[in-house]
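hey so u asked for the seq, here:
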Amino acid sequence: MSDRLSHLFGIDHPIVQAGMIWCSGWRLASAVSNAGGLGIIGAGSMYPEVLREHIRKCKAATDKPFAVNVPMLYPDIEQHMATIVEEGVPIVFTSAGNPATWTGRLKDKGLTVVHVVSSVRFARKAVEAGCDAVVAEGFEAGGHNGREETTTIVLIPMVRDAVDVPLIAAGGIADGRAMLAAMALGADGVQVGSRFVCTQESSAHPNFKQRILAAQEGETVLTLKELAPVRLIRNKFFADLQQAYARCATVEELKQVLGRARAKKGMFEGDLDEGELEIGQVSGSIRDIPPAAEVVHRMLAEFEEARRRVNALSLQRPE
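ran it, structure tokens below
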């Protein structure tokens, strides 16, 4: 395995838990970090005082490094960044915005900064801004996504060829086989979201977790590109969106259909009809709700088994 992330983050395994709004609080982040990966608190769903509480509880629950993810399309960014610095969080993942806005200021405070991108162009911008690493996320991923619809298997080698900083692959990665594939394509490690939503420590509502277990292939879709592209499970809310599109709704009308707190309603409160059920395509393969540490250990074992199978392969040379 690559050791670039181990050196950069001070972790044992190149497995990063995604900072998923409403799903990744201190319990999940500390559990992943204690298992040797990098746990992340998802600040997008938190008020500043709530973020501070989660950071302090995470520090009490683990002596390992952890990070905070700050989506820059949400409010309270100034207060979030101040809290992160004041509380001594060593690593920040930024997303959904211009990395040049915060990277320099955070690095001046001694923090490691990683930015999430969906294209080669944005990866280059992140490196130009001074980011220490990038997460390249294919459009298989759940939640807010890139407009390019570039798949992970296409995106990773292109980004690898374009930038020299440590590269973390994301989108559709839920087991060790996918982890090996991503690293074969040039990634130094992987970021895992959907698989960690369905863990015991995830703050997702039990109804949402059970809906993920029941999900089949093809049940997720990328929508709302006019606002902020998001991948979610088809439900009544999605059907309402489809009706809006059928009548050629304007952007303002789409905003009215979306309303406020849809993700909270679905993922945190468990409303499977009216909520926004953000999850990745790989949800169709998730069938249990284990502890987060078990997910990490499984991935490592699956990675080694997949590597053994690949090493056993031989190519027949033409005569």
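The chain has a mean pLDDT of 94. The domain at 4-204+289-312 is CATH 3.20.20.70 (TIM Barrel).
lmk if thats what u needed
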